Every structure is written in C-alpha cells, then in structure tokens.
Recover the amino acids of this structure.
C-alpha cells in the first residue's frame, strides 16, 4: 500500500499521467505483473496484443473498459471499479481485440498480468486512434468516444 500511495503522489509529474511498478524480475520473465496508476485525465490509445492475453484487477478507482472491432466500432463497454464500487473489478482482455480504458475517478490503480517476455512488437496501436502526442486530436477523439459510449450503453 505504501508503494502505491507513493506512485499516486508521483503520477501527476509524468508526461503521460501514468506510472507503473513492475514486480517481475526483468523483460525476459515468463509472467509479467505490474501495478499501474493512472490519473483521471490519462489517455490510453486503443491497442491490440498479438499472442498475449492480459488480465486486470481493479484495486482503486472506476473506469470504462472499451472493446473495439478492427475498424474502431465499439463492440462492448464494461464498467469497472474496485470491489467497493459495485461493478466488475476484474477483466480479462483476449489477444487480438482492440481495447482502451477511460478513467472515471481521480486515480485508477490496476494490478495487471500478462505473459512475457516483453516485446514492443506484440502491441499494435489502433490506426483510428490518435497518438498521445497529438493532444488536439486526442481531445476530439475522446469527446467522440464519450458520445459513442453513451449511445452504446443505452
């Protein structure tokens, strides 16, 4: 808990508004586990993992987890929260499915697990979602995504 509180105190100092504590030994480990802290304003570009599932256990906060088809159409929205929030507090993300997460709380702490070894080539970024650096495009995309989520949830 002390480490997670420290990460929360530091996350706003990061340019991408996220910080992680890896608990696996190194990039070559066969199982990767990490604690990830996001802020409410963190943007996570939609991505897909090749050859690897991942699982997320929500320790603190709330969020919407969005699954997309290959063209960027929403296929599912899962409301997430820690155990006290009354929503799903665990989600398994299958490989080859585009996904993103939108934070709904000031902070979001996730315990993430995925098979190793780490290879940047195993993650592909959605061509229809803007990169982190294009802040104007991100704001527009997020606004559009918020509208699409609401109509999907109805």
């Amino acid at each position: 808990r002390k480490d997670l509180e420290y990460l929360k105190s530091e996350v706003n100092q990061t340019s991408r508004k996220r910080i992680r504590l890896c608990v696996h030994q190194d990039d070559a480990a066969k199982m990767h586990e990490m604690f990830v802290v996001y802020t409410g304003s963190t943007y996570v570009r939609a991505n897909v993992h090749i050859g690897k599932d991942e699982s997320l256990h929500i320790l603190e906060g709330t969020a919407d987890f969005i699954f997309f088809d290959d063209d960027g159409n929403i296929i599912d929205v899962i409301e997430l929260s820690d155990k006290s929030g009354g929503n799903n507090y665990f989600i398994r993300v299958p490989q080859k499915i585009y996904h993103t997460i939108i934070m709904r709380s000031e902070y979001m702490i996730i315990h993430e697990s995925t098979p190793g070894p780490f290879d940047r080539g195993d993650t592909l970024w959605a061509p229809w979602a803007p990169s982190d650096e294009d802040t104007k495009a991100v704001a527009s995309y997020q606004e559009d995504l918020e509208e699409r989520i609401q109509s999907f949830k109805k």
About this structure: The helical segments are 2-11, 135-153. The first helix runs from residue 2 to 11.
